[in-house]
Amino acid sequence: MGRLSRRAFTGAALSLSVLSTGAAAAPRYPRASVEMRGMWLATVFNRDWPARPGLSASVQRAQLRERLDAAVRRGLNTVFFQVRPTADAMWPSPYEPWSQYLTGTQGKDPGWDPLGTAVQEAHARGLELHAWFNPYRVATHTDRSRLAASHPARRHPEWTVAYGGQLYYNPGLPAVRAFVENAILDAVRRYPVDGVHFDDYFYPYPVAGQTFGDAAAFAAYGGGFTSRAAWRRHNIDLLVRETAARVRQIRPAARFGVSPFGVWRNAATDSRGSATRAGVQTYDDLYADTRTWVRSGWLDYICPQLYWNIGYSPADYAELVRWWAGVAAGTSVGLYLGEALYKAGDPAQPAAWRSPAELSRHLTLAKRYPQVSGHVFFAAKEVAEDPIGAMSRVTADHYRQPAKPPR
């Protein structure tokens, strides 16, 4: 699948063969497999990094290196680094202000370049670095006056929609889509990133009793669509297709993928759907037709967030692995599985998550399906801290030998 990663295999176990004379042959490294072994490194709310806003540049750099070192220790080979958490930037962007999660003040220069440093430091460790972008979230509040004075949402308030206590760019406006793509692609031009990554936020998750205020945009741009829902899906389709094409043009070696919510549609809604009873369906609620994206080959990979345990009846991990493997079968789209490492040991979760072996069982189950090319763990904080040993168990059971990321 194209070029190989820069993965270094220092520290791998040596393989010795004994000659007929009894002398040991020269040691050989084992042949590396190809498998995605990733982690998300979230910056929104300072979830994984930096520990808090306002730390010095040297401390932030050191903390970033620690997160990357933890990925190496666990046998991982890829980091998905959130560089645009709320229509802001973890690099010196000409389009959007510096992220508030660096200094505590949106727009304030932190005195260093986190994305540039992350790419350099990841590659030095043999890790791939995928830049992770949230396309439409502007703020986790609705007060535009709290945004940096230079923020595009202040210059173009007509681009925004307040919904569920947060502020979003309106995906139905062509000007918004063009701006979002340009802001994202600035990072792709500047840095040798190995991938471009979207998460599960397209149209916002539904909030009971509230309506997303895009009636005017639908009236202006929705002609020819039978419903607002169909038009909304078309808007997200355009974002995905156009971003994919532009990434391939600007940086052909970079891979483009999405990590959607794990249920496309329940079978009770659509016979092509999974045997689940999920309360959210990406097709109907987020207007993200993830199945079509895979079947049409628009993506290089898809990484559905399968954040449930084996046997969880509303959304059984085993059923969803089976379903997604069927969707990916016969396509050129890589399938990685998003794993809820953050649930391990959480007493608020079903009992299965209190076993350190639950995630290891996920990887064992997924090996039954040749379409599955690896796993990505949420998130970096738990990869490092490993509160009940679930990540250590995954490494011991599955990651003893090195692997190169799929290409």
Automatic annotation (TrEMBL):
Keywords: Signal
Keyword Endoplasmic reticulum listed: no
The Glycosyl hydrolase-like domain, residue ranges: 35-348
UniProt signal peptide: 1-25
UniProt entry tagged with the keyword Glycoprotein: no
Pfam name, any one: GHL10
SUPFAM superfamilies: (Trans)glycosidases
UniProt xrefs under InterPro entries: Divisome_Glycosyl_Hydrolase, GH, GHL10
Membrane-crossing residue ranges in chain numbering: none
Gene3D superfamilies recorded: Glycosidases (3.20.20.80)
Protein name: Family 10 glycosylhydrolase
Native source species: Streptomyces lannensis
Lineage: Bacteria, Bacillati, Actinomycetota, Actinomycetes, Kitasatosporales
